[in-house]
Specification:
TIM Barrel, alpha/beta, three-stranded parallel beta sheet, 9 helices
């Protein structure tokens, strides 16, 4: 095993068969792929890494990306049709969403407008600037719906770095954590990298995803080295 890791020093060497549960590859509905052509380019680049199965998670963020189940399914259908035209039949994409917990989230949840992942997991996020004022109550309401909240990229919320006890508190509330792959390196900064490794080392990470928005992210993943 040691010799294997010494031979393969890049994380990309170990991604064959990974299901990416967090990405922005659906075209034209958030800050990810802008066109179907860009979506196809991203998928082809993913295939080079051995990743062919995706749960697409565009933002539901009313202030910037007011997506709904209808807009997400429409973008998904458009991409699936394009993939069929290009005979990309070995790729699977399931539509879901990354839900911002903000003032609009409570209504979205109560009206069953959320898009959980398979198994009842609901991918949620907060602002990078400050924690959501209604976060704790939103988590309660999510669990009342029989869903399991999954907090996207917990390592990237700098205000949580200042209150490390919050991570354990969130875990006790039943929140699972999804790590961004690029957080394992210096892409988002040294503080984020340090926190990512701390959470991983303490067994708090339940899922990993790429959070890919562009080819730039995939290029960075290709260069991400791991320790032997």
């Amino acid at each position: 095993m040691v010799s294997l890791f010494q031979k393969k020093r890049f994380l990309s060497d170990y991604l064959e068969g990974l299901v990416d549960i967090h990405n922005h590859i659906l075209p034209g509905i958030d800050d990810g792929a802008k066109t179907v052509e860009e979506s196809l380019e991203l998928i082809k680049a993913f295939e080079e890494l051995g990743i062919r199965h995706f749960i697409a998670t565009p933002h539901i963020l009313p202030a910037l990306y007011p997506n709904t189940a209808d807009t997400i399914h429409a973008a998904h259908q458009k991409l699936m049709e394009a993939m069929l035209e290009h005979r990309m039949t070995d790729v699977s994409i399931v539509p879901s969403a990354e839900h911002m917990i903000d003032d609009a989230f409570d209504d979205l949840l109560s009206q069953d407008g959320v898009l959980p992942l398979k198994g009842g997991y609901l991918l949620v996020e907060m602002s990078y600037l400050q924690p959501s004022l209604n976060f704790d109550q939103a988590i309660i309401e999510i669990t009342k719906k029989g869903l399991t909240p999954v907090l996207a990229h917990p390592e990237r919320y700098m205000y949580l770095h200042q209150a490390p006890g919050k991570y354990e508190e969130y875990r006790q509330k039943g929140i699972l954590f999804q790590l961004n792959m690029l957080s394992l390196g210096p892409y988002y900064g040294k503080d984020v990298q340090k926190k990512a490794h701390q959470l991983l080392g303490s067994g708090m990470i339940d899922f990993i995803g790429t959070d890919t928005h562009s080819l730039k992210h995939l290029s960075a993943i290709k260069e991400l080295q791991i320790k032997a």
